[in-house]
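Researcher: I'd like a structural prediction for the single chain below. Treat it as a standalone chain; there are no partners to consider.
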Amino acid sequence: MEIKNANKCYLTDTQGNTYIDTTMGSGAQIIGHNNPLIREVAEQIKKGTIYTIPNHHTRKVNSYLKEYINPDFDEKYIFCNSGTEANMRAIRLARANTGRNLIGRFHGGWHGGLDGFIEEHPNNRGVPPETNNLFRILPYNDEQCFDMITADMAAVIIETAQGSNPRSDVKKFLEKLREHCTRTGVLLVFDEVMTGFRLSARGGAEIFDVRPDIVTYGKVLGGGFPIGAVGAKPEIIKTRGVFYGGTFSANPLSMYAASLILETIIDKKHIQYDKLTHAGETFRSELNKFFVEQDKKMTVIGCGPLSRIVFTDKFIRNRKDRDNFEPENAQEAFSIKLKKLGVFVNGNGLYHFSMSHTPEIVEELINIIKLGCDS
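Model: Treating it as a single chain, here is the predicted structure.
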């Protein structure tokens, strides 16, 4: 499958087939493909695409983030080109600030393709054991993790809602994690690359009302262009002697796009989170009712506009439970069915709703999934 063009919530491939898009650039296109902001960014191309010196868009983005998103964080962010790079810089900052090397991360979490983050991935060759030894894998949504988070660790990194297991019932777990990290002197890093500016204007930190020491962003913040960002409390981000540079970091295209996205989040012109959340809740509610009535061994879980179909009717607490209860290749087989019915689901199985997914399109998607269950 090769995509020729995208518009609103539709993809068209080189064979002329059109699909309802449920991935939306892995969540990055929160307004929709080919939206007004994307077209506006094109004007920046005439003014140059890379300077390798600071541009005025970056100052504006820093200002918006400080005033409207994270008032308790430093006024300057570290900008780069992807969520992976942002997480790499975040753990480097944590190590430099604490003088410790060990990083805690949770089973089922995804923080990009950095060495040390992919030990559980099937394609993990080429990473030295010495690198993996610098990371400690923790059980997610499980209080046993607190015994493993110790004072010799620099930081713990966690998604506020895991892509492999998106759920809205982890507030107490995140609160206990925050308390434990504070008590042990371990920095808490929120990976909001996927959830930032998607679950809400202030991401999962706002939804669950838990504040990290360091945060990373990407995807939505770039408005369809490559971006990563790291923010932190002033006393942490001012740590000296840490390298963050990169040729394309904070390039004028990405930073102009970020300024436009933040403006529309602030003024609610193109993005209304209540509509996005309602779309996700409707999707989960209607399908879960159908699955129960039809005795399907399926469940939809999620948080806000982010959802995942799980191919079991058993309660799952974490990715380990999902792996144990789901039939092998169930996700892939169902995605193939949906593709034949005109719906594209990405390989990671996530459903990202955008402002272009109208109530009518969400209802159409629900009906197609019901049809896929019976085909």
